[in-house]
Amino acid sequence: MKRVLVEELQNCLGQTVTVEGWVLRMRRLSKVTFLLLRDRSGVVQAVLDPQLLKGQSLTAESVVKIRGVVQAEPRSKQGYELAAQEIEVMALADQLPFNINGEELNVPLDLALDHRVLSLRHTKTNAVFRIQAALVQAFQEFLNGHGFVQVFTPKLVASGTEGGTELFAVKYFEETAYLAQSPQFYKQMLVGAGFERVYEIGQVYRAEKHATTRHLNEYVSLDLEMGFIESEHDIMDLQNQLLASMFAAVEMNCPKELKVLGVQLPEVPQIPRVSLEEALGILQREYGKMHQDSDLDPEGERLLSQYVLEQTGSEFVYVTDYPWTKRPMYTMPKGEELTASFDLMFRGLEITTGGQRIHRHEALTANMRRKGLDPEDFTSYLGSFTLGMPPHGGLAIGLERLTAQIIGLGNVREASLFPRDRHRLEP
Amino acid sequence: MKRVLVEELQNCLGQTVTVEGWVLRMRRLSKVTFLLLRDRSGVVQAVLDPQLLKGQSLTAESVVKIRGVVQAEPRSKQGYELAAQEIEVMALADQLPFNINGEELNVPLDLALDHRVLSLRHTKTNAVFRIQAALVQAFQEFLNGHGFVQVFTPKLVASGTEGGTELFAVKYFEETAYLAQSPQFYKQMLVGAGFERVYEIGQVYRAEKHATTRHLNEYVSLDLEMGFIESEHDIMDLQNQLLASMFAAVEMNCPKELKVLGVQLPEVPQIPRVSLEEALGILQREYGKMHQDSDLDPEGERLLSQYVLEQTGSEFVYVTDYPWTKRPMYTMPKGEELTASFDLMFRGLEITTGGQRIHRHEALTANMRRKGLDPEDFTSYLGSFTLGMPPHGGLAIGLERLTAQIIGLGNVREASLFPRDRHRLEP
User: What is this model's ipTM?
Assistant: First the structure.
């Protein structure tokens, strides 16, 4: 008999059906057992005569197949339940390291990650990744609809994009390769290769030793790059539309998940654009906070977001015009000291970095030299710039950070199915 | 003035517009220059008075911005042309290593790959990757519509999925990690984590030393896995629908590209399913071809495809029931000697591998031992199987191979933007 999903049962009153899923919880009375069965679509209560088990043991989180009749039951949450006629244990679960049938998954993050298959079954944990998938899908749909082509570029590269620090080395036959820190060079080259607008969703790697709640050593980057722009403001304009479209899609596709997690999606207004210099001024004036360096530290990001929220109601703020010293060599300079660049802060955390790039060969070579880099180390990348490269720019959104900030997770690891950090390579 | 795409010009007759793009070709007469401008949407002819260039040089593949009036011109291909009033050279191209304005890109593959930004601008090369992107988009849309969740799993892993051969090693802080050969373990675990149906599109890595026209050391795998199946035939059934849907989408979204490449998309009929034993019998009987080993070699794949095409009209054929010795430890056994597995051949090349997996812990442990593997080496993966794992199976399609076979490319490298092989790490 064909399997029916739990969410379809409401249309099967009076019918005999077969459902399959996991045993979320059991309550055994003397003559009857109540069993909550969970599948990917929902939870249903089954009532069964313990005899049906024929002496087989049954544990929480075992996989079962139940045949039964869907019958009205006003006392159950859905208004119906499944009167079991037959039950088959497809896979018996051992003793669980922790329970997942409470409203909250109250276990330390490390334990939850050690037993990821179990913790992901919790409704709240599961919902995080359904929202994440909806975000990705909406990112793609928006860009597909705006002339972008999805591309796949190598993660095994001959050199770093930003000068060679924080790279993981790979033994590549007789040579050494590195894991790409970003698809930056490739997405620029593909703009120049005539695609004009490309995006890539893929893993990037940072061999950073520090362990914080905001960093992963492998994460998913939502990258885009577009040609024929006038300035970095074109990229910010596009991102405003993109984010609005992503949030609208999540609102529409994940009502259950948003409710379970108690998430209120942000509005995407005309996001304020504040130069870094202004931002540092605000922090000093409003909070007495001095920065040694002309950059925002995590506390600075939080305070600036708080200020902008209070002043404008926006949960987002662009910080623009970063100094030349703070941005990689491919960033378009703006005057002598600044660059045509931006970061996007969302609820106190940087989620996007972007800007306009240099598109003329001589300017790029000169900028490399000014940074103390040797153009000879970038021959293949630089070569593209002698073949006719349009003005262009782009951005990269950290998927796990975006997810974590939307949902209000305290640690970016909670927004990664199988996070990688200095101390975690498994599962 | 806002940029107009070339494809929009047909609606702009008589209007003054600005177009931006690359100089595909120039023909200089004494008083007038004909210039073909290419952008991502098409090609248009511009006519200009050489004086407009004010002595600036202009070369093929330079990036230009032209303002002019769209006027009817019966002698041009489109029926209109652009009468230029102003031209700006946005980026001047150097001497090109080869021309890309012929109907064919007649350059050796290695040279084309060395100058990838240029070769990708050729209409035919460009079309390959637009079709590839359409295939991926359709793969996603079909699966999104069938209850699958897109996931992202780590490519940095602690051990191999298939026993440790052909892995790239990565120095991971104080440890050694490896690049994942496939997301196999993770997609199975995510089925068990309650998602039931997951897919992933991502890079996989094979440290194979041999260089053939069919292998890449880094390629894109279209992976899916689903729970609550009855047998491997459910996976094949799903793939039939999936492929039909992907080809229909390409037909609809890429008419221009298919035409440029002269591609006839295959029909996806009820794809014949032939056991490996039958396949070897056919090869021996029809072609006098003996196999030492019970497996198909590349010639065997081609001949079998040829036979099936002649007999049934299908360009696809499933080869099923591979021997236990030929399949990885997670494959569901079928009797003593065989497995619930399949490969899909398309136009003579294997593009998909799939099957049902073992879902019970004791059976999996026993199968590992029978393969001479130590279950201790797979603790984290095996642990998932004690927590209630449903029957499940899945498949993986090689994206570059699928693309190459559809288009009739002779080398899988032609279906990779920046291929990686033993001798190529750049660009």
Answer: 0.96
